């Protein structure tokens, strides 16, 4: 019965995500749904014990979701091979920039809190 509860909870949160996306199309509907699901768990609206076994199963089999991306990479291997250094450079620069921005924002948030 807990699997039914889990699937129902995830589906309802995803449906709310699609409704939110229809009103505010900034983020994908699945991200809105994940936000609603996490909020429901945090606020105690959803029972974490009932959804944990299904979530563990989903995480265990998540690798299947990456197969299409791997096939896509193989289909465009020549393009990636010819522009590989540009892709690598962009990946490194964007990762470093993201790290700097997130770290700076975190330090900004910590300035307002007293040292413990």
Quick rundown:
By secondary structure, the chain is mostly helical. Helices cover 80% and strands 0% of the residues.
Textual characterization of the structure:
The structure is a single chain. The chain has two domains: 60 residues, no CATH class; 52 residues. The chain is built from six helices and no strands. It is extended. The chain is mainly α and 116 residues long. The longest helix has 28 residues. Helix 1 packs across helix 2 and helix 1 packs across helix 3. 9% of the residues are buried.
Largest sheet: none
Low-confidence stretches: none
Total strands: 0
The 3D shape can be described as: extended
Helicity range of the residues? over 70%
Helix-strand pattern, N to C?
HHHHHH
Percent of residues in beta strands? under 5%
């Amino acid at each position: 019965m807990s699997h039914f509860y889990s699937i129902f909870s995830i589906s309802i949160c995803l449906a709310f995500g699609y409704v939110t996306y229809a009103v505010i199309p900034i983020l994908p509907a699945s991200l809105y749904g994940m936000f609603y699901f996490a909020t429901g768990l945090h606020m105690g609206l959803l029972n974490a014990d009932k959804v944990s076994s299904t979530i563990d199963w989903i995480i265990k089999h998540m690798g299947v979701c990456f197969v299409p991306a791997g096939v896509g990479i193989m289909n465009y291997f020549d393009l990636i091979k010819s522009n590989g250094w540009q892709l690598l450079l962009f990946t490194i620069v964007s990762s470093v920039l993201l790290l700097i921005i997130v770290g700076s924002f975190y330090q900004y948030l910590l300035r307002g809190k007293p040292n413990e």
